[in-house]
């Protein structure tokens, strides 16, 4: 279980890092700037809340933090879908 926990902690951190790299490469449109701000916050919140869940004071606290992680992950997905990504030439 500890191994799985560490793997998820690592993956949520890597997700937040990858989001930041993506955001820095986006075209600077008004909508991208606003959506990117929300995306950066939500992706970081996934990692931060998972880390907090590992230090949960009680079982109830653990599940509450995990629930927030899921919420922020879904929100990150929304912001990712809304971004205007650069078009690739074929």
Automatic annotation (TrEMBL):
Pfam families (alphabetical): 23S_rRNA_IVP
Coiled-coil segments: none
Organism in which the protein naturally occurs: Oleiharenicola lentus
Protein name per Swiss-Prot or TrEMBL: Four helix bundle protein
InterPro entries (UniProt xref): 23S_rRNA-intervening_sequence, 23S_rRNA_IVS_sf
